[in-house]
Amino acid sequence: MEYVYSGNIILAVLLFAIGALGVVWRRHAIAVFMCIELMLNAANLAFVTFAYSINDSMAAASGSKPLDGAIIALFVMTVAAAEAGVGLAIFLRVYRQRGTINLDEFTLLKD
Amino acid sequence: MNLNIALGILLLPAASAIICGLFGKYLKEKTGWVATGAMLGTLAITAILWGLWIVDSQGNSGYVPWGFEWIKVGGFSIEAKFWVDELTLIMLTFVSLVGSMVFIYANGYMHGDPGTPRFFAYFSLFATAMFLLVLGANFPMLFIGWEGVGLCSYLLIGYYFDKDFDGKITCADAGRKAFITNRVGDFGFLLGMLFVLYFFGTLDFHQLFKDGGAVAGFLGENGTAMGWVFTAIALLLFIGATGKSAQIPLYIWLPDAMAGPTPVSALIHAATMVTAGVYMVARCNVFYWLSPEAMTIVAIIGALTAFVAASIGITQRDIKKVLAYSTVSQLGYMFLACGVGAFSVAIFHVFTHAFFKGCLFLCAGSVIHALHHEQDMTKMGGLKSEMPRTYWTYLISTLAISGIFPFAGFFSKDEILLNTYLVDLNIGKTLWLIGVATALMTAFYMFRSVYLTFHGKFRGSEEKWMHVEESPNVMTIPLIILAIGATTAGLLGLPAWFPALPQHILPHFLDHGVTLQGQHLAEQFGMSAIERHHISHSTELGLAVFSLLVAVGGWALAYFVYAKNYPALPEKLRNNLRPLWNLSWNLWYYNMFCMKGVCGGLMALYRFILAIDQHIVDGVVNGAGRVAQAVGGELREMQNGSVQAYAVWVLVGANIVMLFLVFAL
């Protein structure tokens, strides 16, 4: 039997992969940040998709429709928003101090 | 009787050693009289001990009451205890008597030497250790003394540590040689001690050897089945004795020990320390009596050593080396006596030997002193007229060591030869012949040294002759006293054929107390012990006359070669008997074998092990380190500070975990 929502899952995997590559590849902090958001959204998409498919099968069996997946997606969005706020504030401070937000310049952890 | 007074014998020289060592800077040459005083004190205490012994009608031996537990490990304890019996008394007597004479003499000999306080500190320490060795009531105490005398011997051989000895080695090397050679023997001694402890559970002589003691208990339990234990112990202890008493195969150190000052050679390397091996064997005679095999080996080694050393002595030119080889040879006689079961006779020879050999060395020292450290006899001669006291005492001692009637050596050596002749062994007569041949050579090389040194014309430089004069009284009076001892000590062991006077005083005294313990045990438990035949007094007398004739023959030969026809005949003999002369002059090539063969072999082994250690063992250790370093060097590249690189590793890790979860579970 073919899985009905496989298109959604493939999209989520592609989005996640693009986001991960971006996190590793890009030099500009804002771009990296955006890629992280992309990965989070890929995860959200997967959550929501699986929630749908579970709802389908459970409704056929017992008639109940749990909302766990959808609610987790909401939590993720909240966390992402908070993270965006904190992250951008950090970049702002870093930029004020160092005059750049190119990630290659920040290797203090090495020492 | 209160034997605590015997402790004074230990404390006086110890105190003297401390005083000479710590305050030598201020006392300078007065240290000599401190040390001599202490030594005379021990002589007085020995006399008191004899008095106590005679007064006490029982004549019992016993522990010195004072003592303490020194080391305690579980059920095993080492006690610092001391013991006085017949053997101890005899040893104390000649050590303190000859020691006092040598100490007095050393005051004259060391005069003007800046190291005198150091010398007397070591010398007193030696006396302490020697008395400890003799008085110790158990193996560990004996061993401490044993090692102590070894240490002092090493220190005193190397006394002139900045000087060359004989062109081949330095005095410091000679000291090291003595010490290391003795270590080889001590290894055997220690193993022997461990065997004794393992099988008998105690190291105390009295507990071991007394009637119903540990050895008797062992025999009662095991019968004759465990006879090998006694052979093993006897031989291991004998290895120790061959080191300390310079027997084959470990005798090589003694001739080089002559690098020390002459009083040291006289006291340590002739009269006392080197006889410690004989003392130890006599003390442990039980183990030897119970193992005829071990006794036979002791006798063979003794006879061979006596013969080889005497044959080397014939060609030596250094007067002290002649005496050194003669010491080795006489020690061989003593072990021969032990080996044929005549332990008391061995100690009798130790006793007489201490006087005449001590005297000979001191005379040699007197000559060397007069000639300003000339020791080569071919550069001496004619000293008789200038040094009469030295000459006469040297001559008397030579008569004694050669076994000329009625001097001391005649009685002790003849008793040894007689016992060897009588022993019930297949090789008994062979050993006796070797002993007689040695007696001939002894007389020959000793009179050779007399004629070369004191007769003929002086062969050194004019200038030296001008300065030759008799040594001061402080040196010659000890010579005279020792020469009197060398003349009369034989009275303590007159043979059975001797009329009128009491016979065998000293041997019987020892046999009564110590030296027949083992024979009694062997009889009691039916073990086979070495037996001796009995012969009539007239036959004994015949043998004595024969050995006297042999000695006189050696004397006559020496007179003919070195007095009548010197230097033409010795030259001719050397050229005609070149191989024999080479053998003797090169010490039977044994020294060379030891240095090149044994030491060289050990060095090669050491280099081989070093190579293994450096390349294989170190290779493994260093390799482990290098691998860790290389891995670490690579891994540390991961921590480059780039957040994104870390992110890559996180991704890689997450993927691995995921793959693991998907495929492995």
Which key features would you list for this structure?
A: 111 residues, mainly alpha, Helix Hairpins, 76% helix, elongated, B: 665 residues, two-stranded antiparallel sheet, two-stranded antiparallel ribbon, 4 strands
Tell me what you see in this structure.
The complex is a heterodimer of chains A (111) and B (665). Chain A has 111 residues and is mainly α. Chain A has one domain (6-100): Helix Hairpins (Orthogonal Bundle), CATH 1.10.287. Chain A is built from three helices and no strands. Chain A is elongated, with a radius of gyration of 19 Å. Chain B has 665 residues and is mainly alpha-helical. Chain B has a domain at 593-664. Chain B is 72% helix and 2% strand. Chain B is built from 28 helices and four strands. Chain B has helices spanning 7-27, 31-55, 86-109, 116-135, 139-157, 171-200, 205-209, 214-222, 227-244, 253-256, 262-271, 276-283, 285-289, 292-313, 319-339, 343-370, 388-402, 408-422, 428-454, 462-467, 473-488, 505-515, 517-524, 537-564, 568-576, 578-585, 590-635, 643-664; strands spanning 62-63, 68-73, 76-80, 83-84. Chain B has a two-stranded antiparallel ribbon. In chain B, strand 2 (68-73) and strand 3 (76-80) form a beta hairpin. In chain B, helix 6 packs antiparallel against helix 9 and helix 14 (292-313) packs antiparallel against helix 15 (319-339). The model of chain B has no long low-confidence stretch (mean pLDDT 90). The A-B interface holds A 20, 23-25, 32, 103-104, 106-111 and B 639-644, 646-648, 651.
